[in-house]
Amino acid sequence: MGVLAEFFPHRIAQTPFVSTSGYKTFTESAPSFSAWDGSLYDHPLTRAAIERFAVACSKLKPEFVGSKTCKPNVRKLIETWPNELMTWPAFLSRCATIFEMDTTLFVVPGLDRNLNTVALFPMKPAYTEIAEYDGEAWCIFHTYTGDVMAIEYSRCAVVSKFQYMSDFFGDGNDLMGTTLRLLDAQRQAEEQAVKNGARIRFIGKITGMTHGDDLNKKREKFYVDNLSSSNYTGLMLYDNTFDSIEQVKEDRYIIDEDEMSRVEKTVFRYFGINESILTNDYTEAQWGAWYEGRVEPFALALAEALSKANFTDRERQNNYVTFSSSYLEYATPESKRKVVNDSIDRGVMSINQALDIYQLPHIPGGDVRMIRGEYYMVDENNNIVAESGGHNTGSVGLSDESEYDPPDDQDAN
User: Fold this and answer.
1) Exposed, middle or buried: residue 289 (CB in 10 Å: 0-12, 13-18, 19+)?
2) 3-state helix, strand, coil in the chain (%, to 5)
3) Beta strand spans in 154-280 (E)
4) Is 120 helix (H, G, I), strand (E, B) or coil?
5) Is beta strand 392-397 parallel, antiparallel or unpaired with respect to 136-142?
6) What is the DSSP letter of 86?
7) Is 351 within 8 Å of 368 (Cβ atoms)?
8) Domain total for the chain?
């Protein structure tokens, strides 16, 4: 079990599942989850799609929002690294890969002797089942080394997709049918075509009776004279020893381009990706759509799961984990300029947040927010209650017929 033994020995030793007393396996989830056999990850196209998603998720930034006195051990993990073996990019990449491959991700806590969370581990078990003990759901992980670990389900962060049949697990990937078989057939056909190219290329007919050793000598002489690198003329000649020489024509049975394109698009649709994203040749709009459709939902789900696993219901009202990332980092300079110009003088973002968009270092005092002076705060009756600087001006009426019109950006600049 390796390093996990440092955090789980007491959970294994005290597991109630060593006897049948009070132990019940949920009927609908036994067995309800097993690791994918690896075929999906073995094909270059599907592996590239999964890896591209994992790389994008690895750039997410974990943040702890809430009181500094609430779960300081969890805050430390969020602000440093999840466990002693992983950085956050490695952790998130691993989580994303397991999520795509197994359609169910478990993040289990490493616990100290006081049952405080001191590490977070993405789990890739050989087999997992959910059991009930004393009215509570438990996760039982069977590792590839043969060990068994049990921990309360409420302590685990669980993220799944394709969840239909089970209340706990995703239903697994369903791409091993015709699609991957065709991709694999294409790969084998291309490999066989290369091998065939190194085999027999000519058939020669020799007149009369020839001894076996002489036949081999004639074959070798024909090769040296005509097919080896010593023949630099490009002209093939042979004497009347041979009645005829006929070139072997190869028939390559491969999927045509249109059919291959259809198969690849099936893979792209399944993983919610396109060739431009896969080859890093995307536009700003393509990246934004892919980020919002694939990366951001996973980030939200993982953040919610980690918050639920590490905080009580009362603590979660003001304390939670979140992952942030801005696809504006991939925007054009013109788009970045427009976002910064439209946001920084309205108090939407601070100076340092604007610098993040340009991937520039923060400056001292850059966490302040600026608001243009011609803006006012009004109540529901259109009465001015404060100037943009936050100073109370009293209740000054601002009628509907007011000619006040804030200047546009060009006038303001």
Assistant:
1) middle
2) 40, 20, 40
3) 157-160, 202-206, 242-247
4) strand
5) unpaired
6) B
7) yes
8) 3
Is residue 207 one of the residues assigned to a domain? yes
Same domain flag for 25 and 77? yes
How far apart are the C-alpha atoms of 289 and 327, rounded to whole Å?
10
- Contact yes or no for 70/307 (Cβ under 8 A): no
Residue 238's Cβ-count burial label (10 Å; 0-12, 13-18, 19+) is middle
Q: Is residue 364 part of a domain?
A: no
* Residue 389: closest CA among 398, 406, 377: 377
Spatial CA neighbour of 125 closest among 32, 20, 41: 32
Single pTM value for the model: 0.68
Q: Are strands 392-397 and 383-387 parallel, antiparallel or unpaired?
A: antiparallel
Per-residue pLDDT tens over the stretch 251-266: 555 556 777 788 788 8
The two structure tokens encoding residue 342:
């439209």
Is 277 in the same domain as 292?
yes
Q: Within 10 Å of residue 49's Cβ, how many Cβ atoms?
A: 22
CB distance 107 to 69 below 8 Å = no
Paired with 149 in beta bridges are 141
Q: Can you tell me which residue has the tokens 């608001």?
A: 371
Nearby residues of 179 by Cβ (< 8 Å), 6 or more positions away: 263, 266, 267, 270
Residue 293 in this model has a pLDDT that exceeds 70: yes
- The verdict on residue 17 lying in a domain is yes
The DSSP 8-state label assigned to residue 83 in this structure reads B
| 395, containing H or E segment | strand 392-397
Instruction: Output the six-digit token pair for 149.
Output: 């670990």
What three-state secondary structure class fits 242?
Answer: strand
Same domain, 126 and 211: no
- Domain annotation covers residue 390: yes
- Written as six digits, the tokens of 138 are 């438990």
State the residue range of the domain holding 242: 179-247
Nearest partner of 182 among 270, 259, 252, judged by Cα: 259
> Around 109, how many Cα atoms within 13 Å sit in the side-chain half-sphere?
27
Distance of CA 295 to the CA centre of its chain: 7
**CA dihedral sign, ordered 175, 179, 185, 191:** negative
Q: Which residue has the tokens 């397991």?
A: 98
Quick: pLDDT tens for 257-292. Answer: 777 788 788 889 889 999 999 998 988 888 889 998
